[in-house]
Design brief:
Blueprint: E1 6-15, E2 18-28, E3 33-37, H1 44-51, E4 61-69, E5 72-73, H2 81-87, E6 88-91, H3 102-112, H4 118-131, H5 135-138, H6 151-163, E7 169-173, H7 181-193, E8 199-203, H8 207-213, E9 216-221, E10 224-230, H9 231-236, H10 241-247
The structure holds adenosine-5'-diphosphate (ADP) and magnesium ion (MG).
Length: 252
């Protein structure tokens, strides 16, 4: 068994007094896809935002517990959150390309780092767009606006933008739920294809998606992690009644 790349220990998250996540502990191993499932409001997005410290941006949020990335406490005062968010990238439900060209979207993070060498940028664009399975569709119009692409293409450009910053972990918050089924399938295949290189945490409402591509699944309910384990095991033989009810569509 490999060492976990990410460990969440006894994590509780509050919005003011309201507890949104209750004493959650999870380990994530390299090159695993973990699906996070559960009804709306169960704390899935709150967990993702704690992991890349996006929750710092909300002054109402307080946390207790610990999160470590490669053995380092990400809440240490020495953590550079800009660097952290490159190592732990995020893709959102609504595709959010910047209003600029496809090319500039992908190299955005590299430009901020001060990289100017055209050969390096060109190479990063091609590699990232290939990684996001969209190179062939856009290679002849890299300088067109990303906003003019279809929703599914925009989402793959957003995946490419994250890949260009060389993350180790990718957090995906319902990345396909705003897309039509064909575009959703392309994203799903893309994510599966990235498994060899990245560790992914995927919030999804689709039980089919979770069972098709994830290695592990965590089921959340009311801020509690009810059940966490191998996806196959959980879908075939859930240990808790609530898990069974949720995955068979009895609520949610
Ligand atoms: N910015 C916020 N301010 C106050 N409460 C919030 C905020 N975001 C989420 N919550 C609350 O925290 C709980 C968990 O929400 P969330 O993490 O968004 O759940 P999920 O992603 O599973 O739908 C919910 O009760 C939600 O209302
Ligand atoms: Mg959410």
């Amino acid at each position: 068994m490999t060492e976990p790349i990410l460990q969440v220990r006894d994590l509780s998250v509050y919005y003011n007094k309201k507890k949104a996540l209750n004493n959650v502990s999870m380990d994530f191993h390299p090159n695993e896809i973990t699906a996070l499932i559960g009804p709306s409001g169960s704390g899935k997005s709150t967990l993702l935002r704690a992991i890349n410290r996006m929750s710092d941006l909300n002054p109402e949020v307080t946390l207790t517990g610990a999160i470590s990335y490669n053995g380092h406490n990400i809440y240490s005062p020495r953590t550079d959150t800009v660097e952290l968010r490159k190592e732990i990238g995020m893709v959102f439900q609504q595709p959010n390309p910047f209003p600029m060209s496809i090319y500039e979207n992908v190299v955005y993070g590299l430009r901020i780092k001060g990289i100017k060498d055209k050969a390096i940028l060109d190479q990063a664009v091609e590699e990232s767009l290939r990684g996001a399975s969209i190179w062939d569709e856009v290679k002849d119009r890299l300088h067109d606006s990303a906003v003019g692409l279809s929703g599914g293409q925009q989402q793959r450009v957003c995946v490419a933008r994250v890949l260009a910053t060389s993350p180790k972990i990718i957090l995906l918050d319902e990345p396909t739920s705003a897309l039509d089924p064909i575009s959703a399938g392309k994203i799903e295949d893309t994510l599966y294809g990235l498994k060899d290189k990245y560790t992914m945490l995927l919030v999804t409402r689709s039980m089919q998606q979770a069972s098709r591509i994830s290695d592990k699944t965590g089921f959340f309910l009311g801020g509690d992690l009810i059940e966490f384990g191998e996806t196959k095991q959980m879908f075939l033989n859930p240990k808790h009644k609530e898990t069974e009810d949720y995955i068979t569509g009895k609520f949610g």
